[in-house]
Amino acid sequence: MRKERKMPIFWLVILGILVGLTLFSSWLVPFEPNAMDMNHIYEAPNGTHLLGTDQLGRDVLSRLLIGGRVTLFIATLSVVLSSIMGIIYGGISGYFGGAIDAVMMRILEAFLTIPSLVIVLALQAIMQGSVWRMAIIMGCTGWFVTARIVRSEFIRLKEIEFIHMAKMFRTPLWKILFHHLLRNSLPAIFVVTIFNFAGAIFTEVSLSFLGIGVPPSIPSWGTMLYTAQNDLLVGAWWMGLFPGVFIFVTILCVQAIGSRVKQVGGQTHV
Amino acid sequence: MFKMENVTVQINEKFILNNLSFTVPKGQISVIIGESGSGKSTTLSAILGILPALATVEGSIFFNGRNLVALAKQDQAALRQRHFFTIFQDAANSFSPTQKMKQQLYGLTALRMGQTMAVFLAKMKRIVQDLHLPDDVLERYPFELSGGMLQRCMLACALYLEPAVLLADEPTSSLDMLHQQEFIQQLKRLHSQLETTVLLIIHDLDVAASIADFILVMKNGEIVERGQVTEIFEQPKHPYTRQLVAHHF
């Protein structure tokens, strides 16, 4: 029991260190991430380049930290966007119910039948380009689960007595929606958002790895894995290993925190 | 004072209330008794206007000579807001778990009357003391209070608002014996202080006998017998009432 309580703190500390390193990467990086040094290409980790150099002699550690900032920025922006869209869609569907809910849910189910990665791929092919566009595309295709969770929370809450009382006492609709329904749905929204965040990191990495995500000129964990594909063949194992470890640990931390929050949420009244 | 006349409630073509008619005498405590599924809670929901969207209501619900069913929804709500207060079965569900009691009790009482927080605090602190609630109850969240305390918080609202009609659906069912007695005493005190017309739904016949002036016996969405407590418990006429009473005592 005691060990279980410590778990989220452990994962939070690890995630905090990773996020801190990427957030302050501009000051922490030992080398300019795009500075090429053709005299030191494919250098294995050593005292000067702690995580080695790539095919253009760029410092892998510096690119990893700057790249992490890009990946986490895309994940954060897309999750904020998808949460807003999911809350609005699910909230309207759940609160009004009836025919509105039926129509909105059929549309949502139609979206859910198509794997979101396929939709992202299609949109990315049309709108390909910047970090911002990628975050927007991921946000616009990542709200389906949030909408379902918000809908079910609103349906559950609106039948509880305090909502009946609010309606009976002519509480304004906006107050019922925001002060009562949304406020009491936040724990569930928080959990789904954490898992969406892990999913968004994975999507960015997957798309960039396939070469259709962030442009290769911008370092991100995904683009680093993309360029590492060929480098692994020449024995530059550090090119793929370190971005892979960072991605793995970050997603593991987020998933572990999400699972713990979900457990705790189920044990308390809120 | 308060009258239901030929009220029929249908949900998915199933009759939940069937031509229900009864009068709640002014200033008295009336109690509806009956088995689960007899339509007691639906009766209360119909009076409060909180039936599910699928439900259809026919008949008349008169309050002070005005038919609530015939009024526009806004007028119905305004009338209920001014004259009615209700206590639900599960006190824990009567409050939002994420807000402190101060904001919630203020919203349920003083805010409805256009009073400031300062006015609310001055009056509510006295009521809280009278009801033997902890001094810091207003600063607590609902999950930090017991079921009994939360029910007393609902009573505190009733004492603050002084409604003409108080409705309660099984208010004592989630309480232990000690808190049940305490709640009944406080409800009686509220009734004698304010002369409020009270309509209760109570499952426990002991509790019903100890608090009621007038009893309504309900079965399959209809009132099968009505009368003073002594009439119902000592000389029940309807076979169902006899069965209920015999089974219990």
Automatic annotation (TrEMBL), chain A:
Membrane spanning residue stretches: 9-29, 70-95, 107-126, 132-150, 188-212, 232-254
PROSITE patterns, A to Z: ABC_TM1 (PS50928)
Record-stated family: Belongs to the binding-protein-dependent transport system permease family.
Entry-linked InterPro entries: BP-dependent_transpt_permease, MetI-like, MetI-like_sf
Coiled coil (residue ranges): none
Natural source organism: Lysinibacillus boronitolerans JCM 21713 = 10a = NBRC 103108
Record Pfam families: BPD_transp_1
Name of the molecule in the record: Peptide ABC transporter permease
From TrEMBL, chain B:
Residue ranges annotated for the ABC transporter domain, each copy included: 2-245
Pfam families given in the database record: ABC_tran
Keyword Membrane attached: yes
Origin: domain of life: Bacteria
Main location (coarse class): membrane
Molecular function per GO: ATP binding
Keywords: ATP-binding, Cell membrane, Membrane, Nucleotide-binding, Transport
Listed PROSITE patterns: ABC_TRANSPORTER_2 (PS50893)
Signal sequence annotation: none
Gene3D superfamilies in UniProt: P-loop containing nucleotide triphosphate hydrolases
Membrane topology type: Peripheral membrane protein
Subcellular localization, as worded in the UniProt entry: Cell membrane
InterPro entries attached to this UniProt entry: AAA+_ATPase, ABC_Ni/Peptide_Import, ABC_transporter-like_ATP-bd, P-loop_NTPase
Similarity section: Belongs to the ABC transporter superfamily.
PANTHER family in alphabetical order: DIPEPTIDE TRANSPORT ATP-BINDING PROTEIN DPPD, OLIGOPEPTIDE TRANSPORT ATP-BINDING PROTEIN APPD
Protein name, UniProt field: Peptide ABC transporter ATP-binding protein
